[in-house]
Amino acid sequence: MQSTEIKEKIKNLSESNLQELIDIRRHLHKIPELGFEENQTAVFIEKKLSEYNIPYKTGIAKTGIVGTIAGTKGDGKTIALRADMDALPIIEENDLDYKSGNAGVMHACGHDAHMACLLGAAKILNEFKNEFGGTIKLFFQPSEENFPGGALAMIDEGVLENPEVKNVFGQHVLPQLDAGKIGLKPGNYMASTDEIYITVKGKGGHAATPELYINPVMIAAEILVELDKEFKKNKPSECPSVLAFGRIRGEGRTNIIPDEVKIEGTLRTFSEGWRAEAHEMIINIADSISKKMNGKCDVHIAKGYPVLVNDDQLTANVKQLAIDFLGKENVVDLEMRMTAEDFAYFSQKVPSCFYRLGIRNEKKGIISNLHTSTFNIDESSLQTGAGLMSWIAINQLK
After folding, report:
1. What is the pLDDT at residue 66?
2. Per DSSP, what are the bridge partners of residue 83?
3. For residue 352, how far is the Cα from the chain centroid?
4. pLDDT per position as a tens digit, 38-50
5. What is the 3-state secondary structure (H, E, C) of the chain?
6. Which of 288, 294, 212, 208 is CA-nearest to residue 256?
7. Catalytic option among 56, 305, 345, 355
8. How far is the C-alpha of 87 from the C-alpha of 63, rounded, in Å?
C-alpha cells in the first residue's frame, strides 16, 4: 500500500472510530483514579486491548500495561507510544452526564483523552501490521502526577528492553491550543522540578525576652531574602529558571517565639548542570546564615523530574509528518514551559518526542486550564490525536 493510501485510510479510520473514542474517554472520565491506584482503569484498558486482539502484559509498576503490536514485514526497530492513566485529587464542577463518579477525584489533566487516543491509535495500527516491520509498544503508564512518577518505575521494570525501544512518543492535551491543531518544540521543552524543604531551628521563648531566645522566624526571613538575591544573580541568562517559596510555617503566636520554622518551595530549570549548582547554593546559604545567627537548619531537596528534552531530529520528523497529515496551518511551534512531566525520564533514556494536542473550543466554552475543576476537552480532538499518533508510528517503521 502506498504512503498516500495509508494516510487516507488512517484519516478515514480515525474519523469512523471517533464515536468509540468519545465513549472510551467518557467512560474513563467517570472512573478517575489516583496514581498507582488505577485498577478499574487498567481493567478497562485490558478489555479494549483484548477486543482489538492486541497482546499485553499487566501489573507493570503496579497498575501499568504494555501492549505490543508486531509488524509482519520482517525485523525492524521498536518504538513506544505512551499515555498516562492517573487523575487528580480535584472535585469536578462540570455538569456532565459523564462527570466523575469518584468523589474528590477528577481527570483534570486530560489523561482520559490520552488513553482514548492511544487505544484509538492501537486499533488503527493493528489493522496496518502487514504494512510495517518492527514492533510498537503501547505504554499505559500509571502515576504521572505524583513524584517519583510511574515512568521511572516502568523503566526500572524493563519496558525499554526486550526488544530494545529506540524512540518514545507521547502527546498531552493543551487548553491554549484549538482542537485540530498540535504543537511541538525541539530540544529543551519542559523544566526539571525539585521540591525544597528547609527546617530552621532556633530556641523558642517569650517575645519580650529576646536575650533568652534565638528567633527562627528572623533566620528564615534572612535565608529567603539571600536565596532570592543570589539565585537571580547567579542563574544563567540563557537558562530560564525559577526558585520560589510558597509555604512558611512557624507555630508561634504574637508573643511566642517558636523553636523552628519550616520553609517549602520549588526549583525549576532547563539545565541539569545549573540545577546541581543551585542545589549546592541553597544548602550553603541556608546553613551559613543559620550558623551566623546562632541557629541550625536542615535542608532536604526532593529531586524530581528531569528536564524533558525533545530530540531535535526526531521532533523535526514528527513536525513534518504532522504538517503532511494535518496541514501546515494546524502545526504550531511552542515555547519552553516551566511545568514538568515524568515523560522526561523516557527522553533522558532514548531519543523521544513529546508534543501537544489542541483541545480548546471557545464557541463551546471549552477554555478551562489544566488542573482546574471545570477542565474539559473538545472531543473532536480525539480524532486528531489517534490519527496523528498512528501516522507518526507507521512512518517510523516503514
Report:
1. 98
2. 140
3. 14
4. 999 999 999 999 9
5. CCHHHHHHHHHHHHHHCHHHHHHHHHHHHHCCCCCCCCHHHHHHHHHHHHHCCCCEEEEECCCEEEEEEECCCCCCCEEEEEEECCCECCCCCCCCCCCCCCCCCECCCCHHHHHHHHHHHHHHHHHCHHHCCCEEEEEEECCCCCCCCHHHHHHHCCCCCCCCEEEEEEEEEEEEEECCCEEECCEEEECEEEEEEEEEECECEECCCHHHCECHHHHHHHHHHHHHHHHHHHCCCCCCEEEEEEEEECCCECCEECCEEEEEEEEEECCHHHHHHHHHHHHHHHHHHHHHCCCEEEEEEEECCCCEEECHHHHHHHHHHHHHHHCHHHEEECCCECCCCCCHHHHHHCCEEEEEEEEEEHHHCECCCCCCCCCCCCCCHHHHHHHHHHHHHHHHCC
6. 208
7. 305
8. 13
* Count of CB atoms situated within 10 Å of the CB of 292: 10
At residue 177, the pLDDT reads: 98
Taken in order of first residue, the domains within the chain and their CATH numbers are 3-190+307-396 (3.40.630.10), 192-303 (3.30.70.360)
Residue reference for cell 528534552: 309
Tell me the C-alpha distance between 154 and 108, whole Å. 23
Could you confirm whether 98 is annotated as catalytic? no
Mean pLDDT of 229-250: 96
Q: Is the confidence at residue 398, as pLDDT, over 80?
A: no
Sorted by sequence, the CB contacts under 8 Å of residue 60 that are 6+ apart come out as 66, 154, 157, 159
Q: Where does the pLDDT of residue 373 fall: very low under 50, low under 70, confident under 90, or very high at 90 and above?
A: very high
- The CA distances from residue 173 to 38, 254, 343, 370, in Å, are 20, 47, 14, 9
Three cell numbers at 160?
525499554
In this structure, of 73-77, 171-175, 217-221, the range with the lowest mean pLDDT score is 73-77
Between the two ends of the chain, the Cα-to-Cα distance in Å is 11
Query: Does the annotation count 8 as an active-site position?
Result: no
Report residue 286 CA to chain centroid gap.
31
- What average pLDDT does range 8-35 have in this prediction? 98
CA 370 to chain centre: 11
Q: Which of 37, 92, 341, 379 is catalytic?
A: 379
Tell me the backbone φ, ψ of residue 261, rounded to 5 degrees. -130, 135
The CA-based angle 349-243-172, given to 5 degrees, is 45
